[in-house]
Amino acid sequence: MLRRVSGRKIKLEGFNNLTKTLSFNIYDICYAKSRESQIDYLEYIDGEYNSEKLLTIVEEVTRIIDARLVNVSTQDYDPRGASVTALINEYDHNLPKSEYAGGHAVGHLDKSHITVHTYPEHDAESGIASFRVDVDVSTCGMISPLRALHYLIDSFDSDIVLMDYRVRGFTRDSRGRKIYIDHDIASIQDYIAEDVLSGYQAYDINILSANLFTTRMIKKKLVLDDYLFGPEMDGLGQKERRRVRELLRQEMQEIFECQNY
Length: 261
Prior knowledge:
This protein is of the alpha+beta class and 261 residues long. Helices cover 22% and strands 34% of the residues.
């Protein structure tokens, strides 16, 4: 594995062919007692994170990683859910401005993309409703999707975050030697701000030989009032509040560990 020295640049034979992919699921959990409130929550979430809102997030991610949008496709679904798919390329500061038009690069496409999909769902029996967003940021060249990680977590109400980061393929240095990773990384957690990370219980499952890094995060504190939705929640008694708290915590733990209890 290549270890980069601070301030030292790698002289490549040609274009950097390494593919760096950040993929993660973010979950927001809610309790709504009545069916009407459950549907209202889903409609609220669907409006809050429609394709227009997702597009603004994608545009900001593109800016953060110093890339440019080449093509964007957006779609809202009936009854709910939305998707955004964007092709991007690495911004080349050495190119003349004439190579760029209207903020969209018209030069070389670096096989990079960003996709965002939302999945609102609910369980009418338990009263639990959830919102999942899947994000994939895949880049070639020197740009890294890890630079946008903090912004992406902060863009959603994130009760559970399941993340994978993988570097695929290889590129060559000027001597023809294959390079399988061009930056040091020990954990995805190193790229999350401490004030954000401190609010979560987190652990890693990393396969260093495969340049594969996985981090799982779950909120440490469950402030019940932040998870209740609907007017009927105002008169909830202490016994019912304890039951709902346990229900929410179990739901979150099951998603976090990807298994049912």
